Structures are given as C-alpha cells and as structure tokens.
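Q: Could you predict the 3D structure of DUF202 domain-containing protein?
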Amino acid sequence: MTDAGADAADRPFDVGLQTERTLLAWRRTCLALAVGNAAAIKYLSDALGLWATLIGFLGLVLSVVAWVLCTIRYRRAHGGLVREEGLIVSGRLPATVTAAVGIAGLAGLVVLFAQWHPW
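A: Sure. Here are the predicted structure tokens for DUF202 domain-containing protein:
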C-alpha cells in the first residue's frame, strides 16, 4: 500500500512543470557562472597572478552556493504548491547570482585595466 501524502508530495504540481523548468533555468545559470569563473582562473592566472585566482574561486564558491539555494527554493515552492499553501521563497538566490555576476564583472574590469596600455 502506498501513502497518499507521500504520492502527493512527489507528483508535479502542474502539467506544464513551471517550477521544474524554473529550477533547470537557475541550474543552467549557476553552471554557466561556474564555467566562466573556472575559465577566468585558468586563463587569467598568468596575467594577473593570485588576484585572478582568488576572484575566480570566490565566484566558484558563489556558483555552488547559488546551486544549493536554487534546489532549496524549488523544494520550498513545490512543497508549498502541493500542500496548497503559499509560495515560500526568498530573495537569497537572486542576490547570490547577482554577487557572482558582479565578481565576474569586477574580474573583467581588472583584466581590462591591467592589460590596457594606451600610451
């Protein structure tokens, strides 16, 4: 015999799978940030030294944190929808992704000014 409560928690909330698609989109974003930061570590370490490595690793850590937060966000949203409660989500995930993108932008500016010699 199966438990009806367990089946309800595992089934998708809607036919269109919107929450699942949103989870996949956030995960693709986190993966792209991680790849960009790993490439920055590989290719910018020679030009900028330790700073490129530190900024890249900070971006990688933020990418992993964002991955965990998107999973937590999905589970909360899915659980709230299945139990017919409200959506229980926070703004930590967008803030973490914004910080990771900001660090990548800072690394780009550092590279620009370190390699730019107009004279």
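Q: Anything worth pointing out?
A: The chain has a mean pLDDT of 77.
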